[in-house]
Amino acid sequence: MIYWGSETTLFLMDNLKSYADFLTEDAQKYIQETIKKPQWEYDHHDRDDRLDMKFWIQKLNSDSFYRKFVFESIKDMTGDDLILERVYMNGYTSGEHGLFHQDCDDEDGRTFIIYCNEDWNPEYGGLTCFNIDGNLQMVYPFPYSGIYFKGTIPHFAMPISKLFTGLRVTLAYKMRIKK
């Protein structure tokens, strides 16, 4: 099943929720400015990367806009009492993709992914694939939508088509439920 994410909150499954239209226009502009900064490193890989397939990363832990403003919005939307562990942008170019991986090993870990491209065409590919109890769920990277899920759910970024000549960017929040 592919989910396109046009509702403000769309519950896909108990452990996978989609949010759209939650970022202000100013927040979207700030994200685009961050994407253009020359702080990208080609040195990131999935947590369980068996092939050492690297992709782009921009670390944002020291940026208060992401650490405070966006993080507080995520906590408000999800209703969960969360502790932020790290925040960064991922970038993939044509032909790149991830491998199935988990973001953490315990049930308290949470991930929130925000799709940061201003426009996206279905022909570009780049969906996020989740394996939830043997059921594959694909999520379309609808601009500025977000996906919230348990960090133990295996997932990966699907390949980017040659039709897309830019950088597919996601903003990744790795968090933990506060005990």
Report the β-strand fraction as a percent range. Answer: 35-45%
- Compressed to H and E, one letter per element, the order equals EEEHEEHEEEEEEE
CATH architecture: Sandwich
CATH class: Mainly Beta
Reported for the largest beta sheet, the result is:
8 strands, antiparallel
Looking at CATH, the homologous superfamily is q2cbj1_9rhob like domain
Rounded to an integer, what's the Rg over CA atoms?
15 Å
In spatial order, strands of the major sheet run 2-3-10-7-12-6-5-4
Query: What is the strand tally?
Result: 12
Outline the secondary-structure elements:
Elements lengths: L1 E2 L5 E5 L2 E4 L5 H12 L4 E4 L10 E5 L4 H15 L3 E11 L16 E7 L12 E5 L2 E5 L6 E5 L4 E3 L10 E10 L2
Parallel strand pairs: 1-9
Antiparallel strand pairs: 2-3, 3-10, 4-5, 5-6, 6-12, 7-10, 7-12, 8-9, 8-11
